[in-house]
Amino acid sequence: RVKQDSRNSYCFFTPAMQEHSARTLALASALKLALARNELHLVYQPQIALEDGRVVGAEALLRWHSAQWGAVSPAEFIPIAESGGLIVPIGEWVLRTAMAQLVAWRAQGLPPLRIAVNLSAVQFNQVELPALVSRVLQETGARADELELELTEAATMKNPQAAAAQLQRLGELGVRLAIDDFGTGHSSLSYLKRFFLHALKIDQSFVRDIETDADDQAITGAIVDLARSLGLATVAEGVESAEQLAFLRARGCTHVQGYYFSRPLPPEQFHTFVQRSEREGVRAA
Ligand code: C2E
Ligand code: MG
Ligand code: MG
Ligand code: MG
């Protein structure tokens, strides 16, 4: 990582930093070929409604298995895709693949589900985004209310007025809209009120120590109350234990996702997970 606050200090490269930037460059050029080489795929992490303990759908998460580099984490390659202009074609592929998968599950007789797709700020700020979303829905046969788009606070807060207009256009298509990693960026609460939104996702950094950390409890409680008063759902991310779940449930959080229920799964395993949950209930029940 390159130091950002180096205005008053000398900038120098350590061997580790050189290696890092060489790797970044190499990954950037490998990523250009990843789509054509079929190296990208999606995994699906179940999201559960606490109201009835049922699977409402999944968050689609991108995976890259590079022939050269092996498995590369999205935390590493998404920023590379964003700065290299690749996030737009990759993001379109993600949207199309997720919606096609959803329609396939519907055809296979799974109960109604919705899929959440992550959008990077670059995608969100594209004028063409609403038209793209509507085209993908039409081409795949997915319904708008089967799609939830997740965006970050950073994507909306750079230009809140433009973001409000974009959210409005997307919302009018009938898709659901969620703010991801809520509480880790800078949200203006006054804009939140004006944004066309359906859910806030509570970042996993607040969930991790929620049984013991009074600050995390206070922050999570405040987010749940804020969301409820704005008529929004809350999705807690990174739920790994029964104790975390118990706290979130008692505090009024509406939805959860995390390893306690399931890791992100390949499509066939997600299918099985939903069928088994319908029969036996999920762990939450
Ligand atoms: P995110 O959208 O906040 O996704 C949640 C991350 O938490 C995922 O990491 C997921 O695998 C992980 N996670 C889920 N449950 C647990 C848990 O119980 N414990 C812990 N410790 N982690 C859990 P992943 O898949 O590595 O993705 C990292 C980030 O990369 C995502 O954060 C998202 O910002 C980005 N990303 C992933 N797929 C896409 C995509 O298709 N498009 C865009 N633009 N970004 C994506
Ligand atoms: Mg997300
Ligand atoms: Mg998140
Ligand atoms: Mg995250």
Automatic annotation (TrEMBL):
Keywords: Membrane, Transmembrane, Transmembrane helix. Signal peptide: none annotated. Residues 24-278 form the EAL domain. This is EAL domain-containing protein. It comes from Comamonas faecalis.
